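seq as requested:
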Amino acid sequence: METMFIILLTVPAVYSDSHSLRYYYTGVSAPGYGIPEFSIIGYLDDKPTEIYNSDISKSVPVAPWLKKERPEQWLRKTLTCKANEDVFRHEVKIVMKRFNHTGGIHLVQLMHSCELRDDGSIISYEQFRYDGEEFMYLDTKTGTFIPTMAEAQITTQRWNSPDVRAGERIRNYLTQECIDRLRRYIVYGGEDLERRVRPRIKVTHRESRDVTKLHCQVYGFHPRPVDVKWMNGEDEVHSYETTNVLPNPDGTYQIRVSAEVTPKDGDSYSCYVDHSSLEEPLLVLWEPPHVFPRPVVIRAVVIFISVLTSVIAGLIIYKKKRENYTAASMSDALGETSCEVSEES
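C-alpha coordinates:
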Protein backbone atom coordinates (compact mmCIF):
# COMPACT_ATOMS: atom_id res chain seq x y z
CA MET A 1 0.00 0.00 0.00
CA GLU A 2 2.87 2.33 0.70
CA THR A 3 4.00 1.72 -2.88
CA MET A 4 0.58 2.71 -4.16
CA PHE A 5 0.75 6.01 -2.31
CA ILE A 6 4.27 6.67 -3.56
CA ILE A 7 3.14 6.22 -7.17
CA LEU A 8 1.03 9.34 -6.87
CA LEU A 9 3.40 11.27 -4.68
CA THR A 10 6.29 11.01 -7.15
CA VAL A 11 4.78 13.41 -9.68
CA PRO A 12 7.65 15.72 -10.73
CA ALA A 13 7.76 19.17 -9.17
CA VAL A 14 7.55 22.22 -11.43
CA TYR A 15 10.66 24.23 -12.31
CA SER A 16 11.69 27.86 -12.52
CA ASP A 17 9.14 30.27 -11.02
CA SER A 18 6.18 28.03 -11.87
CA HIS A 19 3.96 26.81 -9.04
CA SER A 20 1.37 24.08 -8.77
CA LEU A 21 -1.43 23.14 -6.39
CA ARG A 22 -2.15 19.41 -6.16
CA TYR A 23 -4.69 17.34 -4.25
CA TYR A 24 -4.51 13.59 -3.61
CA TYR A 25 -7.72 11.71 -2.80
CA THR A 26 -7.61 8.14 -1.49
CA GLY A 27 -10.58 5.88 -0.84
CA VAL A 28 -10.11 2.44 0.76
CA SER A 29 -12.62 -0.39 0.43
CA ALA A 30 -12.20 -1.32 4.10
CA PRO A 31 -10.38 0.34 7.01
CA GLY A 32 -7.17 -1.23 8.23
CA TYR A 33 -3.38 -0.98 8.32
CA GLY A 34 -3.73 2.45 9.93
CA ILE A 35 -5.09 3.95 6.69
CA PRO A 36 -8.22 6.14 6.96
CA GLU A 37 -11.14 5.02 4.82
CA PHE A 38 -10.96 8.34 2.99
CA SER A 39 -8.37 11.12 2.92
CA ILE A 40 -7.39 14.24 1.00
CA ILE A 41 -3.93 15.82 1.13
CA GLY A 42 -3.06 19.14 -0.54
CA TYR A 43 0.36 20.27 -1.78
CA LEU A 44 1.70 23.60 -2.93
CA ASP A 45 4.55 22.47 -5.18
CA ASP A 46 6.08 19.90 -2.80
CA LYS A 47 4.91 21.46 0.47
CA PRO A 48 1.94 19.86 2.31
CA THR A 49 -0.74 22.48 2.78
CA GLU A 50 -3.84 20.85 4.26
CA ILE A 51 -5.35 17.50 5.15
CA TYR A 52 -8.77 15.93 5.57
CA ASN A 53 -9.58 12.33 6.47
CA SER A 54 -12.48 10.25 7.71
CA ASP A 55 -10.89 9.94 11.17
CA ILE A 56 -10.83 13.66 11.99
CA SER A 57 -13.77 14.62 9.68
CA LYS A 58 -12.51 18.14 9.10
CA SER A 59 -10.09 20.02 6.87
CA VAL A 60 -7.12 21.45 8.76
CA PRO A 61 -4.01 23.43 7.70
CA VAL A 62 -0.61 21.72 7.70
CA ALA A 63 1.56 24.58 6.46
CA PRO A 64 1.89 27.26 9.21
CA TRP A 65 1.37 30.10 6.74
CA LEU A 66 -1.98 28.63 5.67
CA LYS A 67 -3.46 29.69 8.99
CA LYS A 68 -3.91 33.06 7.30
CA GLU A 69 -6.98 31.62 5.59
CA ARG A 70 -10.24 32.88 7.02
CA PRO A 71 -12.15 30.49 9.35
CA GLU A 72 -15.12 30.38 6.98
CA GLN A 73 -12.80 29.03 4.28
CA TRP A 74 -11.96 26.03 6.43
CA LEU A 75 -15.62 25.41 7.20
CA ARG A 76 -16.41 25.49 3.50
CA LYS A 77 -13.56 23.11 2.71
CA THR A 78 -14.71 20.70 5.42
CA LEU A 79 -18.22 20.55 3.96
CA THR A 80 -16.83 19.96 0.46
CA CYS A 81 -14.50 17.21 1.70
CA LYS A 82 -17.35 15.45 3.50
CA ALA A 83 -19.38 15.47 0.29
CA ASN A 84 -16.40 14.03 -1.59
CA GLU A 85 -16.05 11.33 1.06
CA ASP A 86 -19.62 10.16 0.44
CA VAL A 87 -19.03 10.12 -3.32
CA PHE A 88 -15.79 8.15 -2.95
CA ARG A 89 -17.37 5.50 -0.73
CA HIS A 90 -19.89 4.89 -3.51
CA GLU A 91 -17.31 5.00 -6.33
CA VAL A 92 -14.98 2.51 -4.61
CA LYS A 93 -17.79 -0.07 -4.58
CA ILE A 94 -18.59 0.62 -8.25
CA VAL A 95 -14.98 0.26 -9.40
CA MET A 96 -14.56 -2.97 -7.40
CA LYS A 97 -17.64 -4.30 -9.16
CA ARG A 98 -16.11 -3.41 -12.55
CA PHE A 99 -13.12 -5.63 -11.67
CA ASN A 100 -15.30 -8.37 -10.14
CA HIS A 101 -13.72 -7.80 -6.74
CA THR A 102 -16.07 -8.73 -3.91
CA GLY A 103 -13.71 -8.46 -0.94
CA GLY A 104 -10.25 -7.56 0.24
CA ILE A 105 -8.66 -4.15 0.55
CA HIS A 106 -8.65 -2.04 -2.62
CA LEU A 107 -7.83 1.60 -3.25
CA VAL A 108 -9.26 4.22 -5.57
CA GLN A 109 -6.98 7.23 -5.92
CA LEU A 110 -7.48 10.58 -7.58
CA MET A 111 -4.92 13.31 -8.21
CA HIS A 112 -5.77 16.64 -9.76
CA SER A 113 -3.61 19.71 -10.08
CA CYS A 114 -3.45 23.18 -11.51
CA GLU A 115 -0.16 24.83 -12.44
CA LEU A 116 0.61 28.49 -13.03
CA ARG A 117 3.77 28.85 -15.11
CA ASP A 118 6.14 31.80 -15.09
CA ASP A 119 4.91 32.87 -18.57
CA GLY A 120 1.33 33.15 -17.25
CA SER A 121 0.06 29.97 -18.93
CA ILE A 122 -2.10 27.47 -17.04
CA ILE A 123 -1.82 23.67 -17.03
CA SER A 124 -4.35 21.36 -15.37
CA TYR A 125 -4.45 17.61 -14.83
CA GLU A 126 -6.64 14.89 -13.33
CA GLN A 127 -6.01 11.16 -13.08
CA PHE A 128 -7.74 8.18 -11.43
CA ARG A 129 -5.99 4.98 -10.29
CA TYR A 130 -7.24 1.66 -9.01
CA ASP A 131 -4.88 -0.37 -6.82
CA GLY A 132 -1.98 1.75 -8.06
CA GLU A 133 -2.68 1.39 -11.81
CA GLU A 134 -4.05 4.20 -13.97
CA PHE A 135 -7.78 3.72 -14.48
CA MET A 136 -8.76 6.83 -16.46
CA TYR A 137 -7.72 10.48 -16.88
CA LEU A 138 -9.22 13.80 -17.89
CA ASP A 139 -8.39 15.33 -21.25
CA THR A 140 -8.44 18.95 -20.10
CA LYS A 141 -8.53 20.30 -23.67
CA THR A 142 -11.81 18.61 -24.51
CA GLY A 143 -13.18 18.20 -21.00
CA THR A 144 -13.72 14.45 -21.51
CA PHE A 145 -12.52 11.43 -19.54
CA ILE A 146 -10.34 8.87 -21.36
CA PRO A 147 -10.29 5.22 -20.16
CA THR A 148 -6.90 3.50 -19.88
CA MET A 149 -8.42 0.20 -18.77
CA ALA A 150 -11.33 -1.68 -20.30
CA GLU A 151 -13.05 -1.67 -16.90
CA ALA A 152 -13.21 2.15 -17.02
CA GLN A 153 -15.22 2.42 -20.23
CA ILE A 154 -18.64 2.31 -18.57
CA THR A 155 -17.61 4.98 -16.06
CA THR A 156 -16.17 7.33 -18.71
CA GLN A 157 -19.27 6.95 -20.87
CA ARG A 158 -21.49 7.89 -17.94
CA TRP A 159 -19.31 10.84 -16.85
CA ASN A 160 -18.98 12.15 -20.42
CA SER A 161 -22.70 11.89 -21.16
CA PRO A 162 -24.60 15.14 -21.94
CA ASP A 163 -26.59 14.76 -18.72
CA VAL A 164 -23.51 14.56 -16.46
CA ARG A 165 -20.62 16.31 -18.29
CA ALA A 166 -18.37 15.83 -15.25
CA GLY A 167 -15.20 16.55 -17.23
CA GLU A 168 -16.30 20.06 -18.19
CA ARG A 169 -17.20 20.94 -14.61
CA ILE A 170 -13.85 19.67 -13.31
CA ARG A 171 -11.93 21.48 -16.06
CA ASN A 172 -13.63 24.75 -15.11
CA TYR A 173 -12.74 24.18 -11.46
CA LEU A 174 -9.07 23.50 -12.28
CA THR A 175 -8.67 26.55 -14.52
CA GLN A 176 -10.56 29.00 -12.30
CA GLU A 177 -11.14 28.22 -8.62
CA CYS A 178 -7.97 26.11 -8.29
CA ILE A 179 -5.84 28.83 -9.91
CA ASP A 180 -7.37 31.53 -7.68
CA ARG A 181 -6.54 29.43 -4.62
CA LEU A 182 -3.03 28.79 -5.93
CA ARG A 183 -2.36 32.54 -6.33
CA ARG A 184 -3.61 33.14 -2.78
CA TYR A 185 -1.39 30.36 -1.38
CA ILE A 186 1.67 31.72 -3.21
CA VAL A 187 1.16 35.04 -1.41
CA TYR A 188 0.76 33.29 1.96
CA GLY A 189 3.80 31.04 1.58
CA GLY A 190 6.00 33.39 -0.45
CA GLU A 191 8.82 33.56 2.11
CA ASP A 192 9.13 29.78 2.30
CA LEU A 193 8.78 29.31 -1.47
CA GLU A 194 11.50 31.84 -2.22
CA ARG A 195 14.02 30.36 0.25
CA ARG A 196 17.24 29.37 -1.53
CA VAL A 197 19.82 26.96 -0.08
CA ARG A 198 22.89 25.95 -2.09
CA PRO A 199 23.39 22.22 -2.69
CA ARG A 200 26.34 20.27 -1.34
CA ILE A 201 27.91 17.67 -3.61
CA LYS A 202 29.82 14.46 -2.92
CA VAL A 203 31.35 12.38 -5.72
CA THR A 204 32.31 8.74 -5.09
CA HIS A 205 32.94 5.60 -7.12
CA ARG A 206 32.95 1.82 -6.86
CA GLU A 207 34.86 -0.69 -8.95
CA SER A 208 32.96 -3.68 -10.36
CA ARG A 209 34.96 -5.93 -12.68
CA ASP A 210 35.80 -3.83 -15.73
CA VAL A 211 33.16 -1.16 -14.95
CA THR A 212 33.43 1.86 -12.68
CA LYS A 213 30.21 3.05 -11.02
CA LEU A 214 30.19 6.80 -10.43
CA HIS A 215 27.86 8.25 -7.78
CA CYS A 216 26.97 11.92 -7.38
CA GLN A 217 25.19 12.70 -4.11
CA VAL A 218 23.58 16.16 -4.06
CA TYR A 219 22.01 17.17 -0.76
CA GLY A 220 20.93 20.01 1.51
CA PHE A 221 19.35 22.14 -1.24
CA HIS A 222 16.11 24.13 -1.41
CA PRO A 223 13.79 24.47 -3.30
CA ARG A 224 13.24 21.00 -4.66
CA PRO A 225 13.74 21.39 -8.46
CA VAL A 226 17.30 20.47 -9.45
CA ASP A 227 19.16 19.22 -12.53
CA VAL A 228 21.90 16.63 -11.90
CA LYS A 229 23.78 14.60 -14.51
CA TRP A 230 27.17 13.07 -15.29
CA MET A 231 29.35 14.59 -17.99
CA ASN A 232 32.41 13.34 -19.88
CA GLY A 233 33.95 16.57 -21.05
CA GLU A 234 31.06 18.26 -22.89
CA ASP A 235 29.14 15.02 -23.51
CA GLU A 236 26.37 13.85 -21.22
CA VAL A 237 26.80 10.35 -19.78
CA HIS A 238 23.80 8.05 -19.60
CA SER A 239 22.70 7.61 -15.97
CA TYR A 240 21.76 4.05 -15.09
CA GLU A 241 20.18 5.04 -11.78
CA THR A 242 18.53 8.22 -10.53
CA THR A 243 16.67 8.45 -7.25
CA ASN A 244 13.65 10.66 -6.78
CA VAL A 245 14.28 13.96 -5.06
CA LEU A 246 13.77 13.05 -1.40
CA PRO A 247 13.04 15.36 1.55
CA ASN A 248 15.38 15.82 4.51
CA PRO A 249 14.15 16.42 8.08
CA ASP A 250 15.36 20.05 7.95
CA GLY A 251 13.16 20.89 4.95
CA THR A 252 15.93 20.57 2.35
CA TYR A 253 16.25 17.85 -0.30
CA GLN A 254 18.63 15.23 -1.66
CA ILE A 255 19.16 13.19 -4.82
CA ARG A 256 21.73 10.68 -6.10
CA VAL A 257 22.60 10.17 -9.77
CA SER A 258 24.83 7.27 -10.84
CA ALA A 259 26.49 6.20 -14.08
CA GLU A 260 28.48 3.16 -15.23
CA VAL A 261 31.63 3.99 -17.20
CA THR A 262 34.82 2.39 -18.46
CA PRO A 263 37.43 5.15 -18.09
CA LYS A 264 39.88 5.58 -20.95
CA ASP A 265 42.83 7.87 -21.54
CA GLY A 266 41.58 11.40 -22.14
CA ASP A 267 38.24 10.92 -20.31
CA SER A 268 37.25 13.61 -17.81
CA TYR A 269 34.14 12.77 -15.77
CA SER A 270 32.34 15.40 -13.71
CA CYS A 271 29.01 15.81 -11.95
CA TYR A 272 26.89 18.67 -13.31
CA VAL A 273 24.48 20.38 -10.89
CA ASP A 274 22.11 23.24 -11.72
CA HIS A 275 19.87 24.78 -9.06
CA SER A 276 18.04 28.08 -8.57
CA SER A 277 20.36 28.94 -5.63
CA LEU A 278 23.37 28.97 -7.97
CA GLU A 279 24.45 31.82 -10.21
CA GLU A 280 26.04 29.27 -12.54
CA PRO A 281 25.87 25.45 -12.71
CA LEU A 282 28.51 23.56 -10.74
CA LEU A 283 30.89 20.95 -12.16
CA VAL A 284 32.55 18.63 -9.63
CA LEU A 285 35.39 16.65 -11.19
CA TRP A 286 35.81 12.95 -10.41
CA GLU A 287 39.41 12.12 -9.65
CA PRO A 288 40.28 8.53 -10.68
CA PRO A 289 42.08 6.52 -7.98
CA HIS A 290 45.84 5.97 -8.17
CA VAL A 291 46.68 2.65 -9.78
CA PHE A 292 48.61 0.35 -7.45
CA PRO A 293 50.32 -2.93 -8.49
CA ARG A 294 48.22 -6.03 -8.10
CA PRO A 295 48.97 -8.34 -5.13
CA VAL A 296 50.58 -10.97 -7.41
CA VAL A 297 52.97 -8.37 -8.84
CA ILE A 298 53.75 -7.08 -5.37
CA ARG A 299 54.63 -10.58 -4.16
CA ALA A 300 56.88 -11.14 -7.19
CA VAL A 301 58.67 -7.86 -6.55
CA VAL A 302 59.16 -8.73 -2.86
CA ILE A 303 60.59 -12.16 -3.76
CA PHE A 304 62.89 -10.62 -6.36
CA ILE A 305 64.17 -8.04 -3.88
CA SER A 306 64.69 -10.76 -1.24
CA VAL A 307 66.67 -12.94 -3.66
CA LEU A 308 68.68 -9.96 -4.88
CA THR A 309 69.45 -8.97 -1.29
CA SER A 310 70.58 -12.50 -0.48
CA VAL A 311 72.83 -12.62 -3.56
CA ILE A 312 74.41 -9.28 -2.73
CA ALA A 313 74.93 -10.31 0.89
CA GLY A 314 76.51 -13.55 -0.27
CA LEU A 315 78.89 -11.72 -2.59
CA ILE A 316 79.92 -9.32 0.19
CA ILE A 317 80.63 -12.21 2.59
CA TYR A 318 82.53 -14.10 -0.10
CA LYS A 319 84.61 -11.02 -0.95
CA LYS A 320 85.47 -10.41 2.71
CA LYS A 321 86.53 -14.04 3.20
CA ARG A 322 88.67 -13.92 0.09
CA GLU A 323 90.38 -10.69 1.26
CA ASN A 324 91.08 -12.24 4.68
CA TYR A 325 92.49 -15.36 3.05
CA THR A 326 94.80 -13.36 0.76
CA ALA A 327 96.04 -11.18 3.65
CA ALA A 328 96.79 -14.26 5.74
CA SER A 329 98.77 -15.89 2.93
CA MET A 330 100.93 -12.82 2.42
CA SER A 331 101.61 -12.59 6.14
CA ASP A 332 102.89 -16.18 6.21
CA ALA A 333 105.13 -15.52 3.24
CA LEU A 334 106.65 -12.42 4.88
CA GLY A 335 107.29 -14.36 8.08
CA GLU A 336 109.22 -17.06 6.25
CA THR A 337 111.44 -14.50 4.43
CA SER A 338 112.26 -12.75 7.71
CA CYS A 339 113.43 -15.99 9.29
CA GLU A 340 115.62 -16.78 6.36
CA VAL A 341 117.30 -13.37 6.56
CA SER A 342 117.73 -13.82 10.30
CA GLU A 343 119.52 -17.14 9.78
CA GLU A 344 121.88 -15.74 7.12
CA SER A 345 122.82 -12.86 9.31
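Residues 138 and 145 are 4 Å apart (CA to CA).
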